[in-house]
Amino acid sequence: LVFQSPLTGLLLTSIFSAVLGSLQIGYHTGNINAPERVIIKVFNSSWQSHYNTSISETRLAFLWSLSVSGKDFGAVLGAVGVKWLADSFGRRNSILIANALSIAASLLMSIAQFCMWFEALILGRLIFGMFCGLAMSLNPLYIQEISPTALRGAFSTLNQISFTTGILLGMVMSLNVVMGSESLWGLMLQLSLVPAAMQYFTLAFCPESPRYLLINLGEEVEAETALRRLRGNSGDIRAEMMEMKQESSFSPKCITVREFVQKQSYREPIMILTVICLGANFSGFNAMINYSTDVFLRVGFEEAEYLTLGVGSVNVLFSIVSFFLVETAGRRKLLLVGFLALGVCNLLMSISSALLNIFPQMAHLHALLVFGLIAAYESGPGPISWFIGAELFNQSARPVAMSFSSILNWGSKCLLAFIFPPLMGIAGPYTYLVFMVFALIAFFFTLARVPETRGRVFNDIAAEFQQTDSLLLTPKKLKSSHH
After folding, report:
1. Is the pLDDT of residue 469 over 80?
2. Which of 76, 148, 262, 465 has its CA 20 to 30 A from that of 191?
3. Could you tell me how many helices (H) and strands (E) the chain has, helices first?
4. Which superfamily is assigned to 251-470 in CATH?
């Protein structure tokens, strides 16, 4: 059953307002690497004024890595609070509460320059990370629950488009010729206050998730009112309300983390979620986003900084491609093509790196493969790994599932940020073969076990796992259950 609903201005405003959070996250992901040398000077001067002694190179390197990775570590901490926040305050209100962390963090980070206090940057990145862990789960959760079934996946990919746009914007604004200079980098860090303020002025006037109002709070009248505001009078309100009531009759109002882990019908979707998230994050994408400048320098490109801007541009372009494909090709097909392409790109990157000393022209192939890897990730595995958890579970388990996927996504990003440089030092070109293995494991698992969720109501997807439990799901069976 697919509900055909018109696109109302309020629905589009609600989604646009929600994804302003991921724009901020992308911005602070892309703006920290280019001004590294400028910010490190402030660290050095700050240490000198505080302790009246020079800082050692080892300690300086440690403090900088702490500043960069603090966001990902904070995101893991923030992800733990998704369930409590979403169930206690609702989906929309939780996004607004989390947004306060972003504002506080941006102000703290800019203090590092104006007050010569390097600790403020580290603490600000950690607090901003907590916002990341919350927002990247709460945003798709809210979007999934307010979207028409036929457009649920497409609207969810807007969260990723906003994130990748933020990364590119951060890369551009942090260039030395723009705002990454010694005099402007503190102001550059404050620019995320603009979308943060916009979110308060727009999302506060948008409706709460009707599913949350009906299933979690039992407020049928309020849920129908919110749904009418989102769909307009011409939408199939009665049928959609009936579908939500049906899900409510099968879903407990709340589920604990222990019940989430122990419930038999959740084991298959938990396994699916784990493999997709780990496969996407250990496929090499995050290494390229964090260290692309260094990767390009290694293969001999002096204009590495501008090639990194190319990475950011490809990142945005193919997240837009996934927006148009996710409801036509479906989640399953995009995952299969994406994971296979990631595996092939990593294999060829390993070969081109190994042969670089013999054939220097391999550097150009290597650069193209980096772009190919980014494209493969964003066309399927990347955006889908952030919202698939909301589709595989019923209403009561959805916040726990999104919290779990956020911990997986941010935890693996944090781990990869730490291990990639030493891994390249030890394994060199063969590091990419490790990424290839993760991508291919995810490909074969998707081929064997992952169902298609496109165009299916939440209750239908949840019922499939209740019926099959841990039975292997074949494409043939899934096709028949869809119809």
Report:
1. no
2. 76
3. 23, 0
4. MFS general substrate transporter like domains (1.20.1250.20)
Sign, CA dihedral 260-220-154-203, equals: negative
User: What percent of the chain is modeled with pLDDT above 90?
Assistant: 60
Asked if residues 326 and 154 have their Cβ atoms less than 8 Å apart, the reply is yes
Longest dimension (CA), the chain: 73
Other CB atoms within a 10 A radius of the CB of residue 441 amount to: 16
Identical fold between 7-206 and 251-470 = yes
pLDDT at 147 over 90: yes
| Number of residues in the chain | 483
For the segment 451-470, the average pLDDT, to the nearest whole number, is 76
What class is the 7-206 domain? Answer: mainly alpha
Torsion angle, alpha carbons of 147, 148, 154, 156, to 10: 20
Which of 85-89, 231-235, 353-357 holds the top average pLDDT?
Answer: 85-89
How close are the terminal C-alpha atoms of the chain, in Å?
9
pTM of the model: 0.88
pLDDT of 470 > 50? The answer is no
**Lowest mean pLDDT across 27-36, 363-372, 405-414:** 27-36
Query: Measuring CA to CA, how many Å separate 36 from each of 71, 102, 124, 290, 482?
Result: 16, 21, 16, 12, 51
